[in-house]
Write a structure and sequence with these properties.
By secondary structure, the protein is mainly beta. The protein has one domain. 8% of the residues lie in helices and 40% in strands. The protein is built from one helix and 13 strands, in the order H-E-E-E-E-E-E-E-E-E-E-E-E-E. Strands 1, 3, 4, 6, 8, 9, 11 and 12 form an eight-stranded antiparallel sheet that branches. Strands 10-7-13 form a three-stranded antiparallel sheet, with no helix packed on it. It is elongated.
Length: 177
């Protein structure tokens, strides 16, 4: 080998594998599996436990109003006469995770109830509840609460509202805060 080639070979060997250095083997990668858990719960559920009932009454010559409070008291305005029988505020049983605050939204528009034999109607409005329909007023301290609802029934004359049973539905919303 010529001197130049030996020199070149020596130079290449010095840079390719330095003296005293060993090549370390790398360990293969290791993987581990992690686990994830999430649980979706029903924040709120509500069921009607008592229907709103204005009871028995007679409209009188001018009609008027029956005012049913959430605490189950009824008062009369105008020429309406209350008959025998019972009346009661509506109640809803609200359940969910303990400590959850919620808001009650009552009907914002009047609700019509309709005579079962004719198309005659009466209007229910001025909705009230206990707890009040203010943000976060409802609280499920132990995971449940009963909400009581009252309203005002606008009654016409006997010609406007003939004898019979009037029925209707309404919607109340319970919203998680």
């Amino acid at each position: 080998m010529t001197l130049f080639r030996r020199y070149l070979f020596s130079l290449l060997c010095m840079f390719a594998i330095p003296a005293g250095v060993t090549v370390a083997q790398t360990a293969p990668p290791v993987s581990a599996t992690g686990h994830i858990t999430a649980q979706v719960i029903t924040t709120l559920a509500a069921v009607e436990t008592s229907q709103m009932n204005f009871g028995k009454f007679s409209p009188g010559p001018q009609g008027g109003e029956l005012i049913l409070t959430p605490d189950n008291n009824i008062s009369v305005m105008g020429s309406v006469w209350t008959g025998s029988g019972t009346h009661n505020a509506a109640s809803f049983y609200v359940t969910g995770d303990p400590g959850v605050a919620y808001t009650i939204t009552l009907p914002s528009e009047p609700v019509k109830i309709t005579h079962m034999g004719t198309a005659r109607t009466m209007t229910v409005e001025d909705w009230k509840s206990v707890p009040a329909p203010t943000p976060g007023a409802g609280m499920l301290e132990d995971g449940s609460q009963t909400v009581y609802v009252g309203a005002t029934l606008k009654v016409g004359t006997l010609n406007d509202n003939p004898v019979g049973i009037y029925t209707g539905t309404y919607t109340i919303t319970f919203d998680f805060n």
